[in-house]
Amino acid sequence: MNRWPVLLLLVFSLDSYVKEEIFLSGDLASVSVPSENVNGVIIKVKNDNKKIIPIPYLYEDKNIFIEAINTYIKAKYVNYGESRITIKNESLVNLSPKDSIRVQEEAKLIETVLASSDFSIMPSFEFIRPVAGQITSRYGKQRYINGQKRSVHLALDLDGEIGDKIIAPMKGKVVLVKDLFYTGNTVILDHGGNLFTSYAHMNEAIVSEGDFIIPGSIIGYVGSTGRVTGPHLHWTVYFENIRINPEQFLNENFLESLLQ
Ligand SMILES: [Zn+2]
Questions:
Q1: For the whole model, what pTM was predicted?
Q2: Residues 210, 206, 222, 172: what is their CA dihedral angle, to the nearest 10 degrees?
Q3: What is the model's pLDDT at position 114?
């Protein structure tokens, strides 16, 4: 019996549920949804409702199912390269049982902070650069610390001297100010709609939990607290609990290309 017609039909029907546009690992993307009454952040563009979605860091090309449109989108792996650093203080690399517990507790705290966003604020996705310094380590790099393979760098490092100003890139609420094991003096801002940004290794934070921040206001100063090789800002952007690539927000026409 000839089985080809059945096989061809199957391939065709699978393809019809995959959106042709290709999205990149770590990017923010938008898809048109039929109504404004869809969960998440919806931006109205003329008569179109665009739902903003995060593409997670991917280890290989993947089709991601988007419930709001009942469709898979194609997301592509990006090779961001690797970074090798040396940390001389061995106790910061192979943790003592006490430090391991501290790190686990801090990870849980961050999870709790990121679990409840203020939906009375809505993010504009128009970012101001948080520090003037150049990029020193990009998002997505596979890290090796003292030759050991570690987690992928899911943040952006911006260069700075101790005391350089760090400014809020967008309006938001301060939801965490704390000295953490890895990231030192850390501030997390809630921009609403499940968009959060985090500022690590600060010399000093000058905001308090609960403060409302306007774009461009100073939240603290660059430092080298926590596990670092020198002063810089380690900037993380979380959207819907996914760490996305902060570098995209520094492009001048970011919002325009997101919503096209
Ligand atoms: Zn970093």
A1: 0.90
A2: 30
A3: 97
Q: Is the pLDDT of residue 6 over 60?
A: no
Distance 146 CA to ligand 1 centre (A): 16
Contact indicator for 195, 123 with CB cutoff of 8 Å: yes
33 with 94, same domain: the answer is: no
Ligand 1 centre distance from Cα of residue 177 (Å): 18
Instruction: Using the mean position of ligand 1's atoms as its centre, give its distance from the Cα of residue 156 in Å.
Output: 6
Distance 11 CA to ligand 1 centre (A): 43
Residues 59 and 133 in one domain: no
Q: Confirm if 246 and 233 have CB atoms less than 8 A apart.
A: no
Same domain, 68 and 100: no
Provide mean pLDDT across the span 89-93: 81
Q: Which residues span the domain enclosing 30?
A: 4-76
Q: pLDDT at position 249, please?
A: 95
